[in-house]
Write a structure and sequence with these properties.
The chain is mainly α. The chain has six helices and five strands. α2 packs across α4 and α3 packs across α4 (78-90). The longest helix has 23 residues, at 22-44.
């Protein structure tokens, strides 16, 4: 159900066009995001767990990283992250190397095999979403494009 003009009311500061019920907007947005995420997971997860995939993507994007940095970024305990990294290393997706600045620290980096997997997943995700977007009307696609800056901001901010 779309929020139409009859369901809109001035928001804080009197801005017209703000949904009258931000709780409903939040619920619907959360449900839509969860459904899209579920569709993507089903099609793209392969043989790695979601935690492993998330860690691999982060190491590929921000690495090399120490296990503690990875655990903090992922919101996981260091022991849990160690188990995740052990599996990724065993399967050849990441490698551990001693830090050049701190002999007590081990840095994680993605291997060529891990990079290929991340790139393949990104291409698959993009193709899947493009296929779904093609089912929308031009007006719906324009509405999504207009909403992207706000969605990107929501996805980056901490609660």
């Amino acid at each position: 159900m779309a929020i139409d003009a009859a369901q809109r009311a001035p928001g804080p500061g009197g801005d017209a066009g703000t949904p009258a019920d931000d709780t409903e907007l939040a619920a619907r947005l959360g449900l839509a995001a969860a459904r899209l995420t579920r569709h993507l997971r089903r099609r793209l997860s392969g043989n790695l767990s979601l935690s492993q995939l998330s860690a691999l993507h982060l190491i590929e994007r921000a690495g090399p990283l120490a296990i503690g940095e990875l655990a903090e970024a992922e919101g996981a305990a260091a022991a849990t992250m160690t188990r995740i990294v052990d599996a990724l290393e065993r399967d050849g997706y990441v490698r551990r190397r001693g830090s050049t600045t701190d002999r007590r620290s081990v840095m994680l980096s993605v291997t060529a095999k891990g990079r290929r997997l991340v790139q393949r997943r990104r291409r698959s995700r993009t193709a899947y979403v493009a296929t779904r977007l093609a089912r929308l009307t031009p007006a719906e696609r324009r509405a999504l494009a207009a909403a992207l800056p706000a969605l990107e901001r929501l996805s980056r901010e901490e609660p």
